[in-house]
Amino acid sequence: MTTIRPFRCDDLFRFNNVNLDPLTETYGLPFYMQYLAHWPEYFQVLESPTGQIMGYIMGKAEGLGEQWHGHVTALSVAPEFRRLGLAGKLMNGLEEISERKRCYFVDLFVRVSNKVAVAMYEKLGYSVYRRVLEYYSGDVDEDAFDMRKALSRDTEKKSVIPLPHPVRPDELD
Amino acid sequence: MASRSHVDVNERRLRPIYDCLDNGNNKKAIQEADKVLKKQKDLTCAKVLKALALLRMGRVSEGSSMLTAIHASEPTDEQTLSAMAICYKETQQYPLIASLYEAAARHQPANEDILSCLFMAHVRLGNYQQQQRTAMMLHKLRPAKNPYYFWAVMSIVMQAHKDRALGLSMYLPLAEKMTQKYIKEEKIEAEAEILLYLIILELEEKWEEALAVLEGPMGGQLGNELNLRETRLAAVCTKLLKWDTVNSIYKQLLDVTPDDWHFWLKYLDAGFEMVDSGFEPDQDTSEGGQRADHTVDLMREFVEGKIAGMEPAVLLRGPFLAQLQLLKLVTSRNLDVAPSVGSALQLLKEYFDKFGHKFCCFGDMTLFLDLLNSSETDELLSHIQGSVGLDESEGEDLLFAKDISQMTRHMVSVQLSRRAGKHHLMSSEARLALSQQLQLRYRQGLSFGRELLQTDLQYSDNYLLMAVHLLLDEWSLTGDDVYVWRAVVHLELGIRESPANFQFKLLLIRLYCIKGVFGPCPALYDAMEMKHIINDTMGYIVSNHVVRLGHMMEAGTMYSTMVRFFLVNQKEASEHLMSSYKFGSFGRIQEFVEFQDRLDRSLQFQSAHTEKMLLDLMLQTDCHEAVEAAADCIATQTKHIQCDEVVDNRDLAIALCWDPPSRLKPEQYREDSLAEEKCWLQLRQLELQLLLSAVAAGLEMSGAAGLNGNSSEGHGGGDGKEAPLDALNARVKELLDFAAKSQDFAEPRQYHVVQGPHRTRIANILTGPHLELLAALRDCVVYIHDLHQKDLESVGDKQETCWKAVTETARKLVVRNVDGLFKDMQGKRQLDSTALELLVASVESISYVTVMAGVCCRGLKPLKLAWNKKTKKGKGPSPPQPSTFENFNNMVAELSSITKELHQAASGLDPVFSSLDIASLRLADIPEQQALECEAERLVWSKVERSVQQSSREMCEVLHHKQFYLNTLML
């Protein structure tokens, strides 16, 4: 029971209950504005019946040729609204838009330690494509999984054949 | 134009300069630029880069004059232009970017790049007319490129935003016509262009036309955003009061996503519009599309159909809540069909049975609790308690939840009973027992979360939060601090188990601040990673306290961070607008402009900025020259927004709270607190301006205004025409008038303990001697100013009253009759922050007084010098020195002794100095057998002790500087 709608600038004043969560990064304004200006259809927010922001997704479409894909930049759900399947709902929306844009696949990065998230993405049909070493910087750097799901245009599911070796962040295209 | 190879050579030569600039090595950049210029004198870009390095090194006048010369030469090469644009961006001289490209475009009217840079330069300035003109030039140059044409259209729409009347009569019709031209010629290419056409039609309120677009082939091309066409169509039909269409659009959307709350609301609202108007459907239109549901029965059937159609394994909340919403709408209309829809009590019972194990169940149910009378509420609560089955253990051992689901259901039941006011009806004993019980449930609940990561919340965290709320209830009722300290101890323990829980941290900050302890707050604040825009929305939880509690260094850091966010954003704001034009997201442009305005006028921005400037005048100024330098620096920054125009971006609803609506009135608190904040801001701005004009008056009297004062010419802070002394008089009058008008705020206000904002310091300042004191010093300054026009020998003691008035008022700053850090409450000793707050206000005032005394000194020095000269020359017995100098010195000496007394009071607060062991007082009164709590309590006391110590030390430090400062003022 939620309302899914396009993210608006004013939501930035109200997303604290989502963003004060330690795994949700708060970016500088230009970052959000760039997404709002460039990929507005990929920036969606969930609102509860009481008017609270429950979570949001930010994404974009990029890449050339068979690398043309949808990318999940940020996905977060406020603690009190977890375990309601909201993340899945947001991901479905992003996949559908990517289908309309004729993307080959959707990808995302996730901390290897974030087992709940990894399991959730697996349930949604994503698989680990490769491991990215020390992708997240912090007190201790952490690796990321680059997870992917093929879309209908990638009939042979070529985009999700896992790479045998991990890569460094500077090797990402 | 230069050939390509020539450009490459230039690029290669310039590269080292760019590299140095990128690395921040400005000195070397200048050397490299000089090297290149030796070889190639006319390489303008190298000159620009040199100027940029000079600017970055702070050699502003050298850099600027180079740029002015280059600007006058009207360069056209792209390298030079973009380098100059960087210079102007960094110095925020945006109009110059436009004039730069304007000139270049005159020389090269066919250069697309230059024109498009010119367009963007106008976007940065928000000059919509020039945008339009430039876009049309681009269009003429490249008629095949659609975006240029629509840049012009959008620029016209923005002019309509600026001038509503002309917008409707002229701009919008023009924009519409221009777009129609492209539609007729079938030149429309992008979805963005169709959307822009819709924006125009909607602004003109041409709903029929908008409907035609959406229903026609162009509507079919709107596929980028989910459900965009349908929701737009519904919005337009709403305007046209075509409720049957609206209803059936949402009906279809609900067939696909039966869990969307917005869709349900719109579906039901449209349905009830038809019910209210007695709508009868047209028999013929039912073909094809969905039929609208125009009666309560039809809507009920639809809702029930959705419920029946659900797989039992995946229950959606949507249809069940829709059922309740339907009932709510029926009830509000007193329709007699209510029974067929069901009873609210029954539906809510069922809702809990189905969804009680979800955390969000509480929020969902609160939407409909008003449908119940009090006996029904009781019945609902007892049904819920019975079905959870954990509350039936009176007198025996507590029954604990067997799993997370049961625990969550129980938690929701406790929340609902608090919401129903049950906690507030309890006896103290029962309330404390419940709090204790919830703590035990919390501890037991931790066992379900052993596998959780550090970044997850514990499932039982909200038990603890509720237990703490109950303690705070008791504290509010009795005023006994034992409860607040226990709450602190429990929250500190909670953070250990659940370090990711920001609710605990927010409440801890709140409670520590209420108790006058700022020390632990910065760490808690930082641990929540409050940054960027969160500075605006959450900054309020610390910014009203940090100065109030005497943590000046931290205040400086926090205010700087907050202000920096806003200033950086102001610089970057236009970039977003440019991207919107670039990507054709025209719908965003107006939104971005409004968003920027909301940030610029933010209360948090204005108050942090003002506080920071006042702080700068107070800290680290131990002589008057330093104050003058600081004031000069501040004068360049002050750009005041009228206090009435500030907007409140505070996120006041962030703290979880389950209080009954009769006690929790967020809107009321926001309104009251905003009024108080505006008043406080105005008072602080007046104080600041008063001090600045006093400093300027001092400079003027000393004759130095011509030398140093010229720096304030260019910045235009204030209107510039007002003489400093007149300004000072005006500010003092405004301040006193304002204070008289603001007596409503003389009583400290209190908002909700958990969720409300915190009061400002206004009551304290209005009731103390602070403003009176500033006025007394103003009298001194005015008196000295008059002496400049008079013969000093004529001055008699009778006129010399102003000095005494100052010292008599200043005496009142010495905080008396306070028992240091403690007060007695019903025979118990309690930590009391009143003394600290009073002391901080006095320290602040004595700092301002010192500045004003410095101004007096500035005015008296030339008089003394002239007097000395005169008496030395005179051969005969020198006339008696006028008492002015001595009286002034006496005043300074007296101020110095007051400062010393404040110093003693400040160091007296230090618990070490007063050899006080706060921990030994056992203020939380926690039984010794609770080892965990006792250990946590000890840590809390050491934090309290360190914090008070810090406040005391910082006060002493400031006072020490002031004494030094005062010493330099002796004539």
TrEMBL record, chain A:
Residues 2-152 form the N-acetyltransferase domain. Its EC number is 2.3.1.254. Keywords: Acyltransferase, Transferase. The keyword Transferase applies. It catalyses: N-terminal L-methionyl-L-aspartyl-[protein] + acetyl-CoA = N-terminal N(alpha)-acetyl-L-methionyl-L-aspartyl-[protein] + CoA + H(+); N-terminal L-methionyl-L-asparaginyl-[protein] + acetyl-CoA = N-terminal N(alpha)-acetyl-L-methionyl-L-asparaginyl-[protein] + CoA + H(+); N-terminal L-methionyl-L-glutaminyl-[protein] + acetyl-CoA = N-terminal N(alpha)-acetyl-L-methionyl-L-glutaminyl-[protein] + CoA + H(+); N-terminal L-methionyl-L-glutamyl-[protein] + acetyl-CoA = N-terminal N(alpha)-acetyl-L-methionyl-L-glutamyl-[protein] + CoA + H(+). InterPro entries: Acyl_CoA_acyltransferase, GNAT_dom, NatB_acetyltransferase_subunit. It comes from the Eukaryota. Residues 154-173 are annotated as: Disordered. Belongs to the acetyltransferase family. ARD1 subfamily. Component of the N-terminal acetyltransferase B (NatB) complex which is composed of NAA20 and NAA25. Catalytic subunit of the NatB complex which catalyzes acetylation of the N-terminal methionine residues of peptides beginning with Met-Asp, Met-Glu, Met-Asn and Met-Gln. Proteins with cell cycle functions are overrepresented in the pool of NatB substrates. Required for maintaining the structure and function of actomyosin fibers and for proper cellular migration. This is N-alpha-acetyltransferase 20. It comes from Aplysia californica (California sea hare).
UniProtKB/TrEMBL annotation, chain B:
Pfam families: NatB_MDM20. Signal peptide: none annotated. InterPro entries: NAA25_NatB_aux_su, TPR-like_helical_dom_sf. It comes from the Eukaryota. Belongs to the MDM20/NAA25 family. This is N-alpha-acetyltransferase 25, NatB auxiliary subunit. The gene is LOC101862387.
